[in-house]
Amino acid sequence: MGFYVRPKSLGLNSKPLEPDDNLRTSICCLCNGGCGLKVSLDHEGKVQAVFGDLDNPYNKGKICAKPMEIAQTLYGPYRVEYPMKKVDGKFERITWDEALKLIAQKYNHYIQESGTGSIVGITSKIGGSYSKLAHVIFSKLTGMVNYGTGPICMESEFNVRKEIFGNGSSSGPLSDVVKSKILLIVGNNCAQTKAGQFHWILEAKRQGTKIVVIDTRFTETAQVADRFIQIRPGTDGALGMALLKFIIENDLYDQSFVTEHTNGFEQLAQAVESFSLERAADITGVPSNVIQELARDLASRQPGMLFEGRGIVCVNNAGASIRAFEDLMSILGNVGKEGAGIISHINNYGSAKDLIPKKDVVKSDRKRSAEALYQAMEEGEIKMLFIAGNPCVNWPDSRRMTKAIQGLDFVVSHTLFLDDSAMQADIVLPATHWLEEAGVQASVHRVLQWKDQAAATYAEARSGGDLFRQLAKHMGLETSYFPDSPQKAWELERTHNKSIEGITVERMRKTPGGVHFPCSEDGQEAERLYESGVFPTTSGKVELARANDIAIEYIEVFDSPGNQGVSREKYPYLLSTNKVASHYHTICQYSNWAREMEKQPYVEIHPQTAAELGVIDGEQVRLETVTGSLVLSARITLSVPRGYFSTQPYFGLHSPYGQTPANSLFPVAVDPVGGNFANKNIMCTAKAERGQGQ
Amino acid sequence: MQKIYYQAKHCDGCLACEVACIEKKSLTKSLFMAKMEQPVPKARISFEKFGNHYWASICQNCVEAMCVGACMTGAMQYSETGEVVHNLEQCVGCWMCVMVCPFGAVVPLEDAKKVSKCDLCKDEKTPPCVVACTRKALCYCTPEDYENEG
């Protein structure tokens, strides 16, 4: 019994780590936090443990559970080892060459028969910078239309911010919070979702930054905040508009910034005119003196920063809320200054231009919104689908998505795990993990960091970078446009994109923590955007109002897409999915450690709601929305408001959890302004489920 | 500094220490009432069976503690006398300490979404779990005493 024992986590038969004096440095590519990692390998080059990198100036050795779980997920039973073809409902091993030949043949066939629009990609997990670039080139050569992480994660945030500032990226680094006087965290539980970087916020708090958290749930982040404002679900927009009205009416805004650098102030003032403190208090449930105090705090504490989360982005009235809070930061002049700005995990450094000559660019003959994709698949307009991700779990109305994918002629899944989506594929291809691939990773501090390949490539896995080049070759396309290594890919990208021109691989390797972007050819990096006061909008100014001259249109949550027309008598409650620290997307569900932390999905219920339903803690509850129902175990807690249910979105049927995806309960509804799918605030009903679940 | 030491060879897995711990950590300080409390109090010591042997998971108050290194909020700290102490108020429930503890000794409190661990019951002369252990598998002593007495 003398060895390294961790009965719960490591398991009874677990062995101690092999000695490894040469820890590999890497960067975590999960949540765009960009935490530095140290990776310990065994003698076969397999990951045996992942630690935080003490030398990384941003995470300073802190990480969360998610990257640690990789040591288990990568070599578990669900990992795909070799290419497979589905024959009579069963997967059979084939070679890469056979697989590529078959895909190429089908691809060319569908382009000829049904046009380029008959082939789409759902590619939220395409791989690192090398794979992303190869995928871009491939899409340009073939006209493939792709749906990335955008619609399920940040489309609304990106689009609204782009309308306002001309750029959808975060405008300041998270590390600036220590210089700000107030940090407004809206619908963001960053203590759980950006755990490795959360120490910045606590450090800021120690140094006197006032941390204000606005959330529906009393989250872990809220617990350490200076001020927690609990708001009714989906009413953030009304709070933001009331703050705007109060600040405008009392002349608390930065008048010189507004006159010199913004357009549409009049329209904004007009749009928020009716949002008095009293009306907002009525809608949001936040007392009017609290709103007033917050407005005064925001005005007197300068500079201030804003950190929005999925709580106001992945909702069906996201457009109004995001715009209200970002316009608020703008009129307070909290833009382009040290300690001011908007923190986000969106790191858009622009796309490479003119990678291939115009003559070889193929444009897709059809374009569809993410919402329209479902119908196009169901009606047979789409023949072939390329999946790199897990849409059967993380896209809304997952059952419908699964059915739609089943009905397609030909489905390819390039994947790490044999997950719910891969199970529907005709060809499954093994993908490399980001630890098995070199590349560039962005961070919440607006830096780009280089990581070398840390772990040995597993079995027959290939990266997206290799896959698309080889597929292009089999399809008879010009392959000289494709880079053949991650280093060459970055060189190509860098020389075709002005905003990252000065960021060479050597420079990133040499600079601990990475290089800020944009960074011009002369090597001058910009830590934060808009310091010059020029904005990349057409007018060069901040656009406080939308193009239609209406600044913000508040839509009540019950009148928003997905809830519109649904009976409030039948579906009186609201349902959301929310994140926990030990899971990420659908990949951590394959880890025993994650299962130790989160034994099963549960639904958080307020005690009074539980009493109405007649359930006690741990009992089964059936949740039902317009798209279906699902049984979950109840966890009774005061951290959620009455009439509100919260569960976790990570689990699928083809995983150790064996759960119907929670996203099955969410209708295919998008925020009308930004275009994000909603995975929060959807009307539901619930009842106690006696007897067997599922 | 005194710590709780565990000697597997004396342990017969009676779990009296676990019961004593639950009682001590309950609000009512009563074993019978503890079961009715919501949330049910959790012991800071737990057991796993290996063949005929038992193995206890309890905080060893490491000199270089992984949990202190992993804690992003500073909730897990060394006390002035060298014990590893946990401040519940600073804890945000990222559960990294649970992940990194080689002894599996940090206990997640699911309902509060925080953690806890053995605090050596400083308000007692001897921790109740040690008192409860009739076979002397648990002992509360300084490292020197433990070395000398084996």
TrEMBL record, chain A:
Coiled coil: none annotated. It comes from the Bacteria. Pfam families: Molybdop_Fe4S4, Molybdopterin, Molydop_binding. Residues 21-78 form the 4Fe-4S Mo/W bis-MGD-type domain. The keyword Iron applies. Keywords: Iron, Iron-sulfur, Metal-binding. InterPro entries: Asp_de-COase-like_dom_sf, MoPterin_dinucl-bd_dom, Mopterin_OxRdtase, Mopterin_OxRdtase_4Fe-4S_dom, Prok_Mopterin_Oxidored. GO terms for molecular function: iron-sulfur cluster binding; metal ion binding; molybdopterin cofactor binding; oxidoreductase activity. Belongs to the prokaryotic molybdopterin-containing oxidoreductase family. This is Formate dehydrogenase major subunit.
TrEMBL record, chain B:
It comes from the Bacteria. SUPFAM superfamilies: 4Fe-4S ferredoxins. The keyword Acyltransferase does not apply. Residues 82-111 form the 4Fe-4S ferredoxin-type domain. The keyword Iron-sulfur applies. One of its GO terms (molecular function) is 4 iron, 4 sulfur cluster binding. Pfam families: Fer4_11 (PF13247). Keywords: 4Fe-4S, Electron transport, Iron, Iron-sulfur, Metal-binding, Repeat, Transport. InterPro entries: 4Fe4S_Fe-S-bd (IPR017896), 4Fe4S_Fe_S_CS (IPR017900), ET_IronSulfur_Cluster-Binding (IPR050954). This is Carbon-monoxide dehydrogenase iron sulfur subunit. It comes from Desulfosporosinus lacus DSM 15449.
